[in-house]
């Protein structure tokens, strides 16, 4: 599947605060912790827990969230299918970055070892 311009725009305007609780629920339901989720977010974006809380409180969009992020140089190693989209085939940079985060959360929830998730 290929993301449409409308899909890309919807992702760009979605707030991180609206999605974060779903990430927490997903990982906790599978026996992982919010601290592990935070570790994954920090690895990908450089945002520590206090910065993530600030961004949630400010209700920033994913566009703003990733504009302020310092993406990990190994983020390009995140591959596979998430939400029906093959990450390496996504052309829109922001959509690809959001799918990187989705994929990491999915791997965490599936019980993958942290060193594998963090591409170490």
TrEMBL record:
Protein name in the entry: DUF2200 domain-containing protein
InterPro entries: SP1917_dom_sf, UCP033199
Superkingdom assignment: Bacteria
């Amino acid at each position: 599947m290929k993301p449409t311009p409308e899909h890309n725009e919807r992702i760009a305007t979605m707030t991180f605060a609206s999605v974060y609780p779903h990430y927490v629920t997903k990982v906790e339901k599978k026996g992982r912790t919010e601290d592990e989720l935070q570790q994954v977010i920090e690895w990908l974006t450089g945002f520590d827990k206090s910065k993530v809380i600030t961004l949630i409180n400010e209700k920033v969009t994913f566009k703003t969230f990733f504009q302020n992020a310092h993406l990990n140089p190994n983020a390009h190693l995140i591959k596979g299918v998430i939400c029906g989209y093959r990450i390496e085939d996504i052309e829109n940079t922001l959509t690809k970055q959001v799918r990187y985060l989705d994929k990491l959360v999915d791997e965490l929830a599936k019980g993958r070892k942290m060193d594998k998730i963090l591409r170490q």
